Amino acid sequence: MAVNEIFNNQIFNKETTITLGRLFNSNTPVRHIVIDNFLEDQIAQDIYKHFPSLSAMKTHYKGLNENKSEDSNFAHLNNCFTVLHNALSSELFLNWITECTGIRDCTFINDRLGYGLHQGGNNSFLDIHIDYNIHPIKNLYRKLNLILFFNPVWEANWGGHLELWDSEVKNCIQSIAPLFNRCVIFECSDISYHGYSRIMVPEQITRKSYYQYYFIPVAPDIKYHDTIFKTRPKESTIKKVVTPLKEFAKNTAKRILLKAGMKRFLK
User: Fold this and answer.
1) Whole-prediction pTM value?
2) Is 261 contained in some domain?
3) H or E segment at 100?
4) What tens digit of pLDDT does each residue of 189-216 get?
5) Structural domain tally of the chain?
6) What single string gives the DSSP state of each residue in 251-264?
7) Which of 21, 28, 146, 165 has its CA 20 to 30 A from that of 130?
8) Alpha carbon distance 79, 81 (integer Å)
């Protein structure tokens, strides 16, 4: 299947690309765009049909600041996931990303820090955070996040909207429902705070998404940090105290490992 057959071809229309570029650059403080019907419908349906079960996901995170599962080993999944990843890594798509965002020299990385699947069942959540900024192995700067949702049924009262917050994590500036075949692309920075609140869903429902990150060369003045979680204004006092202490300890330890050349522990 040709790369351009994976996507809704309307997104590559010159006028559409210009419009999306204007939206991306006008949405501040976190530059972003939301695109519905992003993939050709049959491709999107295939991804949903073959999405692994929650229990089959390779990695499960359950801690103070997150409760979700992740998998990037597409070798054991249906080929439709590899087809999607290849399309999102193609020259056609990289050129389109540049046209839409104005961000040049974007590339991708083929490991779990570069792409994969996320999924969460009832009580899943991901606290507000900024992502790691430099890939510890490739030494490239993470500049764009792309998220594709695969949830044919999603009710507003279930929660789980992708939230973008202001630079001080005091106000949610955008709440984006994780609707089927909806794509969100946003710029990564030291103020691109995002996450999703705890979801309450029926037993058979999960929040499914595909993620892919795009990287650019690292500027010499940028120093590595791992994910940094922040608490929402209405979180408990205990969580507001424990979270920054945990994040400080984690980031200090990872910087020491990186400086010591022990990169394999940061994969």
Assistant:
1) 0.94
2) no
3) helix 91-101
4) 999 999 999 999 998 999 999 999 999 9
5) 1
6) HHHHHHHHHTT-GG
7) 21
8) 5
